[in-house]
Design a protein that fits this description.
- The chain is built from 25 helices and 22 strands.
- The strands form 2 sheets. Strands 1, 2, 3, 4, 5, 6, 7, 8, 9, 10 and 11 form an 11-stranded mixed beta sheet that branches. Strands 13-15-20-17-19-18 form a 6-stranded mixed beta barrel.
- Strand 2 and strand 3 form a beta hairpin.
- With 834 residues, it is of the alpha+beta class.
- The longest helix has 39 residues.
- It has 3 domains: 423 residues, no CATH class; 187 residues, no CATH class; 132 residues, no CATH class.
- Helix 21 runs parallel beside helix 24.
- The chain is elongated and about 110 Å long.
């Protein structure tokens, strides 16, 4: 291969319109994939950081025994910040008071704490420090001899800042009364009042000793936390657990996963639009290169030499385009990050370079996947074509080109979707649409032939006849334009309707307070008080039981490999009952017996998979020393986003009735209602009120930020879509120039040619619009019901608007792309094609 000749040809090619369009299409393809991927990664990392506030860290290692210092050393090797804490229960009382004491959730912490989020505190006079929710800096942890107590404990024991409390052998001074601490994810039902103390005072307090029931934890945070968790997980010993916010809070996990699905869809759409643009630009470029291939063969070059030259030429063009695309991607994602800088509580995490590498390789794979087989055919151009321009272009490798191209698209889309099922549905929709495009094109051409039968053709009939004369090109254009229209309509639908449906799944009046430890005799009193305040709450029985056997075989955490399964077996389940399937629960297998069948069990589908349990299995629970055997008769999907009272396990009322139990309920407490909660607590002092509004606000914040981020991500996708439409139109510019030259040579006027072009592009846009709308309806229905799992709401107005926009955009793109047709001299065009 003569590289000097290759570079000379590349320099010449870059001055041609065809090569520029191909390079631009590939650059935009790489740029859109890289920008969307890079920006999506930064946004997902920001969402994860905000969600990690619920844990107070990015990850946490916990154990029932003191942890080795090796864990902290390994975290330091990953450049992570660490903090250690010990958590236990203890009675706390005011040093100078009535002697009343309260069982409290005590946490001995080291600085810095927390690693994620801040502590909300009250000022010394009981008012907020400046305003409610004023923040305490991370360095302000309790000093030796001091303690922070939460508002509930302060209210219950009449503790004020400056008072001392009895905490084991110590009497620390209360230096802060806090409203909330970040770590609320793991102790959702640990409703005891909280106390924070310095870990330096733990030994002297003598609260924790050999045999004490305590949890020892090391929390970590930093950019490489995920790599650390992957490295440390295999090294965990018995009783040691690795916890993240996704595993501890199902509703947060579901929100994060759904956010990533939306951003993944945006990336997939960008990839597909890029593919369409590349295919169209490549088709026109290869057609132009026929003359160069003919010249090579005429001058004595063999097939191999010709093929190597074009492969080298394409490789250089690809590298140039991919380099431009990477630069565009980096600049675009930086612009997107700047545009959304005010949407996040902190700056977006630094961009990683993996998406840029992925986008660069994507460009090479896509171009070579579609170009290599046609290049082989191009190298087979016969020398005689120099004398006979009427000879058809060499064919060959069509099937191979299709297989390689589809394989390239499939691989790239699956890589972007990050989910096999979503990617397969997306690709399946594309394949179905291509088949539909073929049928629709055939129907359109059949109609065109009937309309243009008359001998006295009007200008608009000439335009329609052009479509029939270029049947293959027309079919390809309808398919590509239809795919572009489908993608743009689907993007708009996902951004608006699907996302709106997801937002509505978390209504503003969702329950934000839970009451637990309700005794049976207190239900009527609490129910009446809630009704007086306009709250219709349902009370669910709750029994705590530990799983001890599956199919009469004893089980322990050692029998499971997955961390979540180990934790489920180590802790107690909350068992409840309900006459009918609770709201937000959907049956996926079996039959829900309710209260009609004793000894049955309905399990949440996800936990059943984690424990490898299926219908018909027999599970045995230890409830207060009594063995309760239950048969799995149904599996349920639970909507954790609803924030209702949800349970992993539901059993019949007849089974739960004789067991020791308490009750739980949930209701919505408006932010300005300061009377209801004290009234309920006074009526039932033993009842624990749990505030989950912080978790809800985190979830809502993530949802709102996803909405705004998608606005910018889909804007980039829209630009890629418009380029695709333009490329589809100009891909047949040469044929139109020749047809126009012939018409004008035979006496046709500019006005007649203009009318013919308008008719041609209008019908082309209308057909593509119909195809795109039908494809968008099918694809969005599938995405809504099968992937995002929200209700599909038909939008006829959006579909009609999409149809009109597709027609007008195609007409506008066609006019912009073919203006030169009217200004070019007919004799010049005919000489070029002689």
């Amino acid at each position: 291969m003569n590289w000097q000749l290759v570079f000379r040809f590349v320099k010449r090619e870059l001055r041609s319109t065809e090569a520029r369009i191909l390079v631009l299409a590939l650059a935009v393809a790489v740029g859109s994939v890289g920008a969307v991927g890079m920006f999506a990664d930064r946004v997902k990392a920001a969402f994860a950081n905000q969600a990690n506030v619920l844990l107070g860290a990015d990850a946490m290692i916990s154990a029932d025994r003191p942890l080795s210092d090796d864990f902290a050393a390994q975290a330091a090797a990953f450049d992570l910040r660490t903090t250690q804490s010990t958590r236990f229960g203890s009675m706390v009382s005011k040093s100078s008071g009535s002697g009343d004491a309260a069982l409290s959730d005590v946490k001995a912490i080291s600085a810095p704490y927390p690693l994620r989020g801040v502590i909300e505190v009250r000022s010394a006079d009981g008012a907020s420090s400046g305003a409610r929710g004023a923040r305490v800096a991370l360095r302000d942890v309790p000093k030796a001899g001091e303690a922070f107590v939460d508002e509930r404990l302060a209210s219950r024991l009449d503790i004020k800042v400056g008072d001392t409390i009895n905490l084991g052998k110590n009497t620390p001074r209360v230096s802060q009364i806090f409203v909330e601490e970040p770590e609320i994810a793991g102790n959702f039902l640990s409703a005891s009042p909280k106390v924070l103390m310095s870990i330096a005072d733990l030994a002297s307090s003598e609260l924790v000793g050999p045999g004490s029931r305590a949890s020892y934890r090391i929390q970590v945070a930093g950019p490489r936390a995920e790599a650390f968790t992957a490295a440390i997980k295999p090294k965990l010993g018995p009783g040691q657990r690795l916890e993240t916010v996704r595993e501890l809070r199902p509703e947060v996990r579901q929100t994060l996963e759904r956010s990533e699905q939306f951003l993944g869809l945006a990336a997939s759409f960008a990839v597909f639009l890029a593919v369409v643009a590349i295919v169209l630009a490549l088709r026109r470029y290869l057609k132009r290169e026929l003359d160069t291939a003919t010249l090579f063969r005429t001058l004595g070059a063999g097939r191999r030499q010709t093929l190597l030259h074009f492969v080298g030429q394409f490789a250089v063009l690809s590298l140039i385009a991919c380099a431009m695309g990477v630069a565009l991607a980096y600049a675009a994602q930086a612009g997107l990050a700047f545009a959304v800088r005010g949407l996040f509580a902190s700056e977006l995490p630094a961009a990683g370079y993996a998406p840029l590498v992925k986008s660069f390789l994507t460009g090479l794979v896509l171009l070579l996947g579609f170009a290599l087989p046609p290049l082989v055919a191009l190298a087979s151009t016969p020398p005689v074509r120099a004398l006979r321009r009427d000879l058809p272009a060499p064919t060959g490798g069509g099937v191979i080109a299709s297989v390689l191209g589809i394989a390239a698209v499939l691989g790239v889309v699956l890589l972007q979707a990050q989910d096999l099922r979503t990617g397969m549905i997306f690709v399946g929709g594309i394949v179905a649409l291509v088949g539909s495009a073929t049928l629709l094109a055939a129907a359109v051409l059949w109609g065109v032939r009937r309309v243009t039968r008359s001998r006295s053709k009007k200008p608009w009939q000439l335009g329609l006849a052009n479509l029939d004369r270029r049947r293959l090109s027309t079919s390809i254009q309808i398919a590509c334009l239809g795919l572009g229209v489908m993608t743009l309509i689907t993007v708009g639908f996902v951004r608006a309707d699907l996302f709106s449906a997801w937002q509505k799944s978390l209504p503003p009046d969702a329950p934000n307070r839970f009451l637990v430890n309700i005794q049976p005799e207190q239900i009527d009193t609490l129910s009446g008080l809630l009704k007086e305040r306009g709250q219709a709450a349902k009370f669910y029985p709750m029994v705590r039981g530990r799983l001890v056997a599956v199919n009469d075989k004893a089980v322990s955490s050692k029998d499971f490999v997955e961390d979540r399964a180990k934790r489920l077996v180590d802790r107690e389940f909350n068992l409840s009952s309900s006459e009918s399937l609770p709201p937000g629960n959907a049956l996926v297998a079996g039959q829900y017996g309710g209260d009609t069948e004793s000894g049955t069990l309905s399990l949440e589908d996800g936990i059943a998979k984690t424990l490898n349990v299926s219908l018909g299995d027999r599970l045995t629970f230890d409830v207060a020393g009594e063995k309760v055997a239950l048969k799995v008769t149904s599996l349920r999907k639970v909507d954790w986003d609803s924030f209702r009272v949800n349970f992993f396990a539901l059993i019949p009322k007849s089974t739960i009735e004789p067991l020791p139990k308490s009750y739980i309920t949930a209701f919505h407490l408006p932010a300005n209602d300061g009377k209801t909660l004290p009234m309920l607590v006074n009526a039932a002092p033993n009842v624990l009120a749990i505030d989950v509004s912080e978790i809800m606000e985190r979830v809502r914040s993530i949802v709102e930020q996803v909405a705004k981020a998608l606005e910018f991500v889909f804007l980039f996708t829209l630009v890629a879509g418009l380029l695709t439409l333009y490329t589809a139109v100009v891909s047949t510019q040469d044929e139109r120039r020749y047809d126009t030259a012939v018409v004008r040579t035979l006496g046709g006027t500019r006005s007649q040619v203009r009318s013919a072009l308008i008719a041609e592009f209008s019908l082309l846009g209308l057909a593509a619009g119909v195809l795109g709308v039908l494809g968008a309806v099918a694809l969005t229905w599938t995405l809504a019901t099968r992937i995002i799992k929200v209700e599909f709401i038909p939008s006829p107005g959006v579909w009609l608007l999409g149809l009109l926009a597709a027609t007008l955009c195609t007409l506008a793109a066609g006019w912009l792309g073919t203006r030169s047709v009217l200004s070019t001299s007919p004799i010049q065009v005919l000489r070029e094609n002689a």
